[in-house]
């Protein structure tokens, strides 16, 4: 198996030759749930650059539960991301949902994101597996560890082993939180695979006030980083505002995970 640990060294996934995930540093990936406008994405890019965060997230194609909800700006959103990333020297991660968009999006992004709902979209996995760009594979909301690793295997089998796993919570009977963030998978994955593991406490909890505590926990349990949603004005966000951090909260998160990282 391409993704099993065996005697392999920890995989360091290089992003665009200027940063990497899994090198021992704790990576913070931040940005809005969705790219909404030039003004919004530029203000976020500027702020995360001022915090020395190197990877900007932003959805252009949004997998919304309702077809009547904001679906994202599509390629227009990818163009805005690229423009903002260029100005502020950032790397971009963005979700692609359609295998036909993989090639078209190639020049706009640095990391392909495969969302929870598409973890077992095998046609999409094979398509990103044929590229030479890193892929972040989010855990399916009802996926077991084995199913998740087999999905990663589909990507690796096509020749691309630059894979980052992202725990984003699973569906359980508990509905106080949006999902149940399963942090036990971090040490489990560390023993089963050499791939880096990122935690998404935004979708994992669905509540702004739980994002920082669970990011601290992710650092304590040995994750390689976190991906969090941030917005200049979370109340006005077109999607997922209730789980987004404002700029001050993002700064606090960075400070607090750094303290934990120094202890572990
Ligand atoms: C996202 O990160 O933009 C997202 C839609 O998350 P998930 O696929 O984990 O629901
Ligand atoms: Mn979101």
TrEMBL record:
Gene3D superfamilies, A to Z: Aldolase class I
Gene Ontology terms: biological process: aromatic amino acid family biosynthetic process
Ranges where the DAHP synthetase I/KDSA domain occurs: 13-258
Record keywords: Transferase
Protein name as catalogued: 3-deoxy-7-phosphoheptulonate synthase
InterPro entries named among the record's database cross-references: Aldolase_TIM (IPR013785), Class-I_DAHP_synthase (IPR052899), DAHP1/KDSA (IPR006218), DAHP_syn_2 (IPR006268)
GO-annotated molecular function: aldehyde-lyase activity; transferase activity
């Amino acid at each position: 198996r391409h993704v099993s640990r065996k005697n392999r060294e920890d995989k360091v996934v290089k992003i665009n030759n200027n940063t990497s995930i899994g090198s021992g540093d704790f990576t913070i990936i931040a940005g809005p749930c969705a790219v909404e406008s030039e003004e919004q994405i530029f203000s976020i890019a500027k702020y995360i650059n001022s915090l020395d965060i190197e990877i900007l997230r932003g959805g252009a194609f949004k997998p919304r539960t309702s077809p009547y909800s904001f679906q994202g700006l599509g390629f227009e959103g990818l163009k805005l991301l690229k423009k903002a990333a260029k100005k502020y020297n950032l790397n971009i991660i963005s979700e692609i949902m359609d295998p036909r968009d993989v090639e078209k999006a190639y020049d706009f992004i640095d990391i392909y994101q495969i969302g929870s709902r598409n973890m077992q979209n095998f046609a999409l996995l094979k398509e990103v597996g044929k590229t030479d760009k890193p892929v972040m594979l989010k855990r399916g909301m009802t996926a077991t560890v084995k199913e998740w690793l087999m999905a990663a295997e589909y990507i690796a089998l096509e020749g691309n082993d630059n894979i980052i796993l992202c725990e984003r919570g699973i569906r359980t009977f508990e509905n106080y939180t949006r999902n149940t963030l399963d942090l036990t998978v971090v040490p489990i994955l560390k023993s089963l695979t050499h791939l880096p593991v990122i935690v998404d406490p935004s979708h994992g909890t669905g509540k702004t006030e739980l994002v920082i505590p669970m990011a601290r926990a992710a650092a304590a349990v040995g994750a390689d980083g976190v991906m969090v949603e941030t917005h200049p004005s979370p109340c006005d966000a077109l999607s997922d505002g209730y789980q987004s951090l404002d700029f001050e909260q993002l700064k606090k998160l960075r400070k607090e995970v750094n303290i934990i990282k120094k202890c572990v």
